[in-house]
Q: What sequence folds into this?
């Protein structure tokens, strides 16, 4: 065993060991970390000796954030489009073409450098597990390059060849590409497949075709559904048993019933909702119906250019009606569930003996401060698999 570290003086420890909703916060706790794992958790007064000791002096400790929806592999910038939107212009899926052109023009090194910079930025705000996706290449070589870049930066990667039909391509020709050679080219780098089921992107049957091709190739399913209207994406995600359906701004009662009857997680993206001026999803109704909710940043240059999970947690509490405990659970264990990673020894998003030492200290005595002191950077220190990643020692 390499050296062990005792983290003691924890004012409030949120473990997320409850599998449905947040209940327990321990006080005056300590934990011991070694070889990337948690070796011990308990009252500080009974903590065993370790090689090193870090006293967090009454601060709150919780699992690192699990950000399950980002698009970090891109070139260019869309701040002008954002500014026009804030002046009243509506968001449309077609803006994706701008980033596709800039992404194709960038070198792979540039793409990796941008994604790494954003990952580092996220880590500095407590994110210890990160998904990212392709979707700005949209030809075989560019998607393969994006997937390779993504895999070099993120923990898990999603193939989003079905983001839009790129300019100058026929729909049928493109779908054949996405479900055929493009899928084969990205397979070494990806674990999930996604499709944007929306007016201006892909309809329900096209989305089904893409997802089934991905499933046949061994990938887990994720869906961009009902972001800009009643697209049918949510119902399809529930029908196919997708791990996650993301956005969900427009939901009919039958959509909520379908979600409640299955196990698909709804991933809420509050920063995107604000940046596109879309109505917030009915988060409270979803929770009350028994649907599992995750929170993610959706970091991308078009609709949500933030890596800040604390901002998403605060917005979920202050504007979407979640309690602090529900929002923090959604950003950790709920998010882990949407990746199929909330159980077993390789689980993420919760702190338990034998599990990964992915954790963060807040410069605050309680997780309530994440919303109570909204806008104030509260991340104190972050450990990823037992290694301090922020601030660097
Ligand atoms: O999740 N909705 C589709 N994809 C991204 C936006 C992409 C873009 O506009 O560049 C999203 O919001």
A:
């Amino acid at each position: 065993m390499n050296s062990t570290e005792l983290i003691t003086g924890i004012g409030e420890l949120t473990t997320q060991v409850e599998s449905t909703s947040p209940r327990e916060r321990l006080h005056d706790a300590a934990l011991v970390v070694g070889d990337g794992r948690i070796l011990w958790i308990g009252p500080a007064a009974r903590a065993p000796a370790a090689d090193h000791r870090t006293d967090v002096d009454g601060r709150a400790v919780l699992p690192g954030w699990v950000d399950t929806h980002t698009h970090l592999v891109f070139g260019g910038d869309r701040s002008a489009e954002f500014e026009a939107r804030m002046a009243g212009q509506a968001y449309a899926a077609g803006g994706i073409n701008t980033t596709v052109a800039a992404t194709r023009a960038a070198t792979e090194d540039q793409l990796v450098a941008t994604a790494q910079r954003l990952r580092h930025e996220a880590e500095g705000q407590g994110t210890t597990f990160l998904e990212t996706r392709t979707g700005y290449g949209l030809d075989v070589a560019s998607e393969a390059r994006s997937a390779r870049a993504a895999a070099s930066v993120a923990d898990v990667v999603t193939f989003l060849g079905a983001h839009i039909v790129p300019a100058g391509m026929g729909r049928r020709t493109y779908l054949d590409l996405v479900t055929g050679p493009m899928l084969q080219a990205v397979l070494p780098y990806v674990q999930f497949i996604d499709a944007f089921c929306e007016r201006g992107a892909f309809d329900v049957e096209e989305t089904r075709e893409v997802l089934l091709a991905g499933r046949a190739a061994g990938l887990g399913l994720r869906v961009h559904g009902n972001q800009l209207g009643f697209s049918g994406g949510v119902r399809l995600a529930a029908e196919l048993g997708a791990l996650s359906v993301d956005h969900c701004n427009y939901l009919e009662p039958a959509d909520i019933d379908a979600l409640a009857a299955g196990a698909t997680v709804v991933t809420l993206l509050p920063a995107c909702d604000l940046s596109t001026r879309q109505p917030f999803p009915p988060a409270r109704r979803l929770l009350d119906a028994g649907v599992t909710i995750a929170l993610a940043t959706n970091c991308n240059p078009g609709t949500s250019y933030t890596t800040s999970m604390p901002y998403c947690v605060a917005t979920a509490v202050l504007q979407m009606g979640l309690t602090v405990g529900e929002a923090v659970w959604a950003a950790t264990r709920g998010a882990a569930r949407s990746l199929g990673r909330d159980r077993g020894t390789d689980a993420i998003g919760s702190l338990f003996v034998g599990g990964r030492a992915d954790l963060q200290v807040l410069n605050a005595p309680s997780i309530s401060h994440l919303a109570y002191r909204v806008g104030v950077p509260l991340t104190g220190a972050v450990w990823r698999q037992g290694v301090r990643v922020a601030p660097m020692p």
Summary: The chain has two domains: 4-63+349-390, 66-338.
